[in-house]
Amino acid sequence: MRSLTTAALAATLLLGLTACGTADNPPSTPSDKGGVEASTAPPSAKAPARTVSPEDLAKAREAAGLPPEPTAKARQAYLGALNAIDPRIIKPGKEDQAVSRGSNQCRSIKDSKDDAKLAQTALERFTVDTRLPEIATPETGRKINEAVHTHLCPNF
User: Which of 50, 62, 74, 130 could pair with 70 as two cysteines, CB 3.0-4.6 Å apart?
Assistant: First the structure.
């Protein structure tokens, strides 16, 4: 139970980081969407942008049960393996999404040894079951899991 709580906390941290702005790309304000300006404080009085070190991000990924960020070589091999299964699995222009879903599937692989359940989870996670029903078979799910395990989390 503790590892589940730790994983949930780390996942929340990772998701929360995407809401932070940077000096070059501040978070949107209500006035950006036609609303009333939330703050009239001068820019110098606002809180500085937050940054997270690569080490802290790696620790959060580990605590969430996710593998390390893949190397460029592993990423390309993984995307190639998915394309070899069926080029429609990766939505056009959504390679980052496919890598993210693969990382999340790693957590499932780490937590379960039920091949049938893992195959179904892969089909659902990659939306093959709804987008590509003609290939939504246990064999396709197993192939996706093999690609994920081989290239993103071989130690799981």
Answer: 74
